[in-house]
Design a protein that fits this description.
The protein contains 19 helices and 17 strands. It is α/β, with parallel strands linked by helices.
Length: 516
């Protein structure tokens, strides 16, 4: 039977500088969802990349005495390096400077112009360079940009416009009849009340005041303006072509999930669906606007100097611990907070203690009492059934949480297995059983149950902390398993031998040393 396709994208990162841990959160979140879907038997297509055009990049390149292309080659390379460092399993990394993307954007622009959705006019208004957005006087807050609070400039230039209003009613109807399209619901209400219901302005889709962009091929002094260039990456990178799309496109479109930051929900749930309607393409099934990951003292910004970078964190904690923090500390709707203190505390309590110590003790006891051989002698007591039933109930709970994109909650469920195994050690007291020769088979059974419980927990952990799963299974001399296998307790081969020297999965850290 052919696997069901599942297409997931992140927003493409703006190539204006090095991504901080808040930007990195999104790719790790998407990666955990993509890995879980593969585990659940889907044929996953997971895409990410960089958005490389615009005035802001032209200005930054100029400041660095580089060409814009030299500048984005460097920054895009740095973004990709960090995505790879975080062990993300994307299928393709698109750059909006890729030839294929540029050609398709030109074709899309021409198609929309030819069918009367794009027309030429003049733009008069206030422009915010950092946000690459035009605003009317009424939209400004205290005369400044409503999005970032910085000063705006007067702008007047010839531009092409897209007729947003033509599709507005269709979009309102679509959002009302597809309750899952915008998630969480709070974001949907914001889009409807603040933007759609008051009436949509036509959208400026070209610029003449800078040249770093995709030229409009039939009017080359214009370059295609940010959103028509950036958003279309979701279809160009899987082979969309107005003259006839690839099989890959037909198989994967519409996307199952666009995962984006809450600050760009408007572009993804208003502009993007309208562009797709104009191209006569189906809309993505879901747009999820995740919250922000904040530093202890507010939103990270380079100007505040409170930015934490993923590679700095990896140096201290390791890749999987950083994946754990960013996934675990983010609520579904509200912003999450990341501080050095909190990370050290989580590392020591959850990772080193609950998980690392459990694996270490279990392997050490197997070596001490049975030379590392793990055998199920079948000497059971009621406490064993309680452990088994609990562990076997967890995969369904994880599945339910992942279906709702509640990744932090899914991880919490996985860790209940390790907590339950720790409790089982307290309940069965293997060190006491070891003192009685007649209880040897009971002791063997207890250790077998622990190893099996850890294996099931480790397999479920793989979408979130893939390297840790591999390290645990290697030390236990265990095979990876499919999701279906987790309905059965007792698949660990009786008589297998665990490693002689357990390695420490997560070393405890001293907060004072870390802060210093």
């Amino acid at each position: 039977m052919a696997k069901k396709p599942y297409y997931i994208t992140t927003a493409i990162a703006y190539a204006s500088g090095k991504p901080h841990i808040g930007n990195t959160y999104e790719i790790v979140l998407a990666d955990s969802i993509a890995r879980y879907k593969r585990f659940a038997g889907y044929d996953v297509r997971f895409m990410t990349g960089t958005d490389e055009h615009g005035q802001k990049i032209e200005n930054k390149a100029f400041e660095n005495m580089q060409t814009p292309k030299e500048f984005v080659d460097e920054t895009s390379g740095e973004i990709k390096r960090i995505w790879d460092l975080m062990n993300t399993s994307y299928d393709k990394f698109i750059r909006t400077t890729d030839d294929y993307h540029e050609k398709q954007v030109q074709k899309i622009f021409k198609k929309l112009y030819d069918q009367g959705d794009i027309y030429k006019g003049h733009y008069v208004g206030k422009y915010c360079t950092p946000c690459e957005s035009f605003f009317t006087d009424g939209q400004l807050i205290d005369g400044k940009c409503p999005d970032c609070g910085r000063p705006v400039q007067e702008a007047k230039e010839e531009a092409y416009f897209f007729k947003m209003s033509k599709y507005a009613d269709r979009l309102i109807d679509y959002i009302n009849t597809h309750p899952d399209f915008i998630q969480p619901v709070s974001r949907k209400n914001e889009m409807m009340n603040n933007f759609l219901l008051p009436g949509l302005q036509d959208l400026c889709v070209s610029r003449t005041s800078f040249s770093w962009g995709i030229p409009v091929d039939f009017d080359p002094k214009h370059v295609v303006y940010v959103w028509l260039d950036a958003l279309t990456n979701y279809i160009t990178k899987i082979g969309y072509d107005p003259d006839g799309s690839s099989e890959l496109f037909k198989k994967n479109w519409p996307a199952d999930l666009h995962l984006i930051g809450k600050d760009i929900v408007r572009f993804h749930t208003i502009y993007w669906p309208i562009f797709l309607m104009a191209l006569d393409l189906p809309l993505p099934k879901q747009v999820f606007g995740h919250p922000w990951l904040l530093q202890g003292d507010g939103k990270m910004s380079k100007s505040k100097g409170n930015v934490i970078y993923a590679d700095e964190l990896v140096d201290f904690f390791g890749v999987d611990a950083v994946r754990y923090f960013v996934l675990h500390e983010m609520p579904f709707e509200n912003d999450g907070v990341i501080t050095w203190e909190l990370m050290v505390e989580r590392l020591n309590s959850e990772l080193a203690n609950t998980l690392g110590n459990l694996v270490n003790r279990t392997i050490s006891m197997s070596n001490k009492y049975f030379g590392g051989v793990v055998e199920n002698k079948g000497v059971t007591e009621p406490v064993d059934d309680d452990l088994k039933n609990f562990i076997l109930s967890v995969p369904a709970k994880v599945n339910e949480k992942m279906d709702k994109l509640r990744v932090a909650d899914a991880m919490t469920e996985v860790f209940t297995i390790f907590k339950r195994c720790n409790k089982y050690i307290d309940e069965t007291m293997p060190w006491a059983l070891a003192k009685d020769e007649e209880k040897k088979d009971r002791l063997a059974t207890v250790l077998y149950n622990l190893v099996e419980g850890i294996c099931i927990g480790a397999v479920l952990l793989k979408s979130f902390m893939p390297e840790t799963t591999e390290r645990i299974l290697a030390q236990l001399n265990a095979q990876d398993r499919e999701l279906e296998d987790l309905k059965t307790f007792g698949l660990y081969p009786s008589g297998n031998k665990v490693t002689e020297k357990p390695e420490i999965l997560f070393a405890r850290l001293d907060l004072k040393e870390v802060l210093a």
